[in-house]
Structures are given as structure tokens and as C-alpha cells.
Design brief:
The chain is of the alpha+beta class. The chain contains 4 helices and 7 strands. Strand 1 and strand 2 form a beta hairpin.
């Protein structure tokens, strides 16, 4: 079993992963996502729209997992936890919009706030906060046989 510190480093080193939520029929639903990792609080923050299946699934059942690949096939981390959904952004620069601006700025650099906030409202965007309670995975320094 790989130590939590090493697994958290895999998550911190990237901003792309696969979010797994649970569909109504019990099967997993997987989504490629961008995230911002808060190592101190062990929270992955993800921008999505209220209409997306992942958001609807998490409203019904907040259990989720985030899979992040490392440098090779034998290095990955999975962060399991409970998701909290922010309010939908409904007015320019509301709390959800400000948090979304912080997240999107981490991915795309400086963003013109006025059109950004208008877009967040128009698209009914919100923030998923995955509160990580458990990490697991493997982090071999090199693939076997190398």
C-alpha cells in the first residue's frame, strides 16, 4: 500500500482526472474533469453545470471518487469522499461565481470578470467540492521491468 503523502502528491501534481459518481441504477458514471486541489483541506474543487449528470447524481448520492493518473500506468491515486455542491451562480459575482472564477483562473489564467460571471449565470454553473476522506492507489517510481 502506498503512503497517503505520495498519493496526495500525485493529486497535487495534476489538475486532470476522472470523477466517478453513482447513477440511479447503481452503476458508476465517469466524467473527465479539471479540478483544483486544496492539499491542506483535502478538497478537490470542480466546476460543472446544474444540468450535468454528475451534478444530478451527487445531489441524490454525494459519494464520489476522483482518479488521477501519475507519470506511468503503475502510478495513480484515487481520492474517495463526499461531495458538497455549491449554490448555482444566479447573479454576477455572487459567492458561487467568485469561487468559479478562482477555479477557472487556475486553469485558464486571467479572465475578464464581467463576461465570465455572465457566462456562469447563463450556464447555471456551480462548484463540486469533493471532501476527501480516503486515498488509495499505487506509486511505483518506475514501471515493472524498466
Amino acid at each position: 500500500m502506498t503512503d497517503d503523502t505520495v498519493l496526495a502528491q500525485i493529486i497535487a501534481a495534476d489538475n486532470q482526472g476522472v470523477l466517478a459518481t453513482i447513477k440511479r441504477d447503481g452503476y458508476p458514471q465517469l466524467s473527465n474533469i479539471l479540478y483544483v486541489w486544496d492539499a491542506e483541506r483535502r478538497i478537490a474543487r470542480i466546476s460543472t453545470t446544474a444540468r450535468r449528470l454528475k451534478a444530478r447524481n451527487l445531489r441524490r448520492d454525494p459519494h464520489a471518487a476522483l482518479h488521477v493518473s501519475g507519470d506511468h500506468f503503475w502510478a495513480f491515486a484515487v481520492a474517495e469522499g463526499t461531495a458538497e455542491l455549491s449554490d448555482v451562480s444566479t447573479s454576477p459575482a455572487d459567492a458561487a461565481g467568485r469561487e468559479l472564477h478562482e477555479i477557472h483562473t487556475a486553469f485558464y489564467g486571467d479572465l475578464d470578470p464581467d463576461p465570465f460571471f455572465a457566462d456562469m449565470v447563463a450556464n447555471q454553473r456551480l462548484v463540486i467540492r469533493l471532501h476527501v476522506r480516503r486515498l488509495y492507489g499505487i506509486a511505483l517510481p518506475t514501471p515493472p521491468g524498466d
